[in-house]
Structure prediction request, 149 residues.
Amino acid sequence: MDLDDFDHQLLHLLSLDARQTGKELSEKVGLSSAACLRRVQRLREVGAIEREVAIVSPEATGASVTLLVMLMLSRGQPERMAKLRQKLLKLREVKKIYHVTGPADLVLTVQCSSMEAYATFTEAHFYEDDIKGFDTIVVLRSYDPESGP
Prediction:
């Protein structure tokens, strides 16, 4: 992708809030509103913007406990890992999966209504042949660039 400084500024601004208007973007990057909107459309077309999503409050869904789960998988064929990823991505509690290096093979972001609900979730999904083990980190608080520390 051939992106310049303006494109990178727009991508950063949109990653914080994708609902910004062309006027709002133009005031922040120093281009006209029309130029910003043309650039944003081009960024979508070239795949620099993969998708635009709503970040739903966990409290709105009743899933107020966020956990980072590190799955260690049994070594096997890549297609088995792909099937497991597909299965996990269909679960309402699983918000994101990362294929990582290190002691874990996959890191999942999971949201549940309580620790008891998480215990039930692990019993239903993590005790199978393809999963050698898992470790869990409970998120106490989260911070992002928009909300700050």
